[in-house]
Structures are given as C-alpha cells and as structure tokens.
# Entry
Amino acid sequence: MRVVRAKAELRAALAEPRRRGERIGLVPTMGSLHEGHLSLIRRARRSCDLVVVSLFVNPAQFGPGEDLEAYPRDEQRDVRLAEAEGVDLLWAPEPDEVYPDGFATAVEVDERLTGVLEGEPDRRGPSHFRGVTTVVAKMFNCAQPDVAFFGQKDAQQAVVIRRMAADLDFPVEIEVLPTVREPDGLAMSSRNAYLDPAERERALALSRALGAAEAAAASGERSTDAIVAAAESELRNAGVDPEYVEARDASDLAPVAELNGRPVLVAVAARVGRARLIDNVVID
Ligand code: AMP
# Structure
C-alpha cells in the first residue's frame, strides 16, 4: 500500500491503472477506522481492481461548536488497518492541499435534501452538507473512481451524495452498504470513542428505539407519527433527549404520513455525553 498526500501524486499513481482499464474504487473516510469503514473497504476490494481509501478530517463539514479539534485521529493505526485489508492507495491529504489559499467554491445540494433531519441547524443541516458535497466532489475529481462506497449509517449523506453525483454528471457509481453494528446493536462510529461506560449503555437507546419503530411497523402500524412515537418512548425511558426522530421517504427524504409501500427511513440523532450520535433503519 502506498500512502499519498498530494493530489498530483494521487493522479500520477492512478494514471496507468486507469489507462489499463482497471476498475477504481474509492472509499472516503475521516479515518479512525472501524468495522463500518472496513466493510466498505472489503466490498471495494472484492469488486474493484484498485482500491483508494481517503483519510481526511474535513474541516468544512464541522460546525463552529463541533468536535473538529477533538475528532479522533490515529493515522498509523489507520495505515495498518487499511494495509491489512489490501488497500492499494491511502490518500491522506493535508487541509491546505484540499483547500489551498483562495479556495472559494462550494457544491451545494438543495435544502429539500440538506435542510431536513436537522436538530440543531448550526451544527448540521445545509452548511454541514455543503462541506461534505464540496469535499466529495473534489475527491471524485481527483481520484475519478468508477465506483465510490458509502455507509447507510449516514443515510442522509448517502441520499445527498447520490443526488449530487447524478445532478453534476459525475461518471461514478454510488454504492451504499448496510450499517455495521456492535454485537449489542450500537451503530459503529468513530465518535463512540467519546462515550464512557455509562454513556455507552445509554447510547444503546438509539438502536433500541429504531427496533421499536420497526416492531410497530411489523405489527401493522402504518402511521409514521405512531411509529416515531414508539421510538421516542424508548429514548425517553433511557433518558435520551433526541435532536430528532423522523420518518421520511428513504430516497428523496420527503415527509411521509403513512407507510405507503415505498421504503421509509426512520432516522434519529441524539447527543449522549459529548457524542452526537445518529442511526437509522429503513422500513420497507
Ligand atoms: P466517516 O469516517 O464517519 O466520515 O465515515 C466514512 C464512511 O464510512 C461513510 O460513508 C460512512 O457512512 C461509513 N460508515 C461509518 N460508520 C459506519 C457503519 N457503522 N456502518 C457502515 N458504514 C459506516
């Protein structure tokens, strides 16, 4: 595995494989790799000739009060894990390689997709997703992957990136893979590192709440208000006050009042201790 920093190095490393017609897969990450990331990397390894993993804690997607400084970083460990999975190129640029002096452009997806499911608008919402879509567009341009892999854990991000890629004609397939969980149900996240044992226990309420939503739907409930209420009650019982619990159309994030045969995303965000956690399920 080669670790590259500069865009020019990345492009040079990809030129020959691309000319040979190799299928290039990109897995964008912010590092601090866990089994969720590794599931994307393994899928990329199985389906591509050449696997690029990017490792970049993107300042543009953090809000003013967010955890940019505290975000867990351990490049040496990430290098070891990526190498063990057979990654070909680990692209770990410095922030000024991605955002050089004078950088003045953003890629922005409409608020119908980015201005929903937001508890605290100054933390998340459109400005967060502007940061995500801008950096992912740049990564698509730098690596020019045939396919890019994302996790369903960040369901809204996946919807937003699919939209961006389609709208801007990026010649890349977007593949979204299932959320990887701890044995007790907690969705894996780099931010789980912030949880102390008591908070870790309380954080289980998120996946339990989503389980309650699924159970309500499975027992015949069609009203999304009632399905959301089932989830909220689990959270309340655990003393977790959610930023949001919402049911929305899984492909365009439009509000849905009743299950209607189309997949419905039930998504939750909640702060537990220092960690802002998100999780979701799709009810078919
Ligand atoms: P991050 O490093 O948190 O920005 O995540 C990088 C990629 O890994 C994103 O596409 C995430 O959706 C995905 N990811 C993060 N956690 C998980 C998980 N528990 N299961 C599956 N994919 C995940």
User: Anything to note?
Assistant: Residues 63 and 123 are 5 Å apart (CA to CA). The first helix runs from residue 7 to 19. The mean pLDDT is 97.
